[in-house]
Amino acid sequence: MKKCTVRHGIRVRQRGQGMTEYIIITALIAIAAIGAVTYFGGTVRAQVGGMAQELSGHKATASIGDAESSAGKAASEGKAGKQKGLANYDNKTAK
């Protein structure tokens, strides 16, 4: 009877070990994703700003003005914000 209890206890520990391994792997993937977004964030912002400027050439006058102003904001943010992080976060909607 004691052997059955010991085996059951080992199985419980093994299940816990498996869950711990999954948590560690998930944390490592999250850290890698955060690092990639931080490293390539400026490039992505600059590319999206460039695409927005390219797409703003339609013939609708109001749409062109709106698209050009949005594209200009995106392009200037992409060029000016090479290092983005929580240090330069400004929550303008809460003010």
From TrEMBL:
Compositional bias segments (type: Low complexity): 67-78
Origin: domain of life: Bacteria
Keyword Membrane belongs to the record: yes
Annotated spans, Disordered: 62-95
Keywords: Membrane, Transmembrane, Transmembrane helix
TM annotation in the entry: 21-41
Protein name from the UniProt record: Pilus assembly protein
Annotated source species: Luteibacter yeojuensis
Organismal lineage: Bacteria, Pseudomonadati, Pseudomonadota, Gammaproteobacteria, Lysobacterales
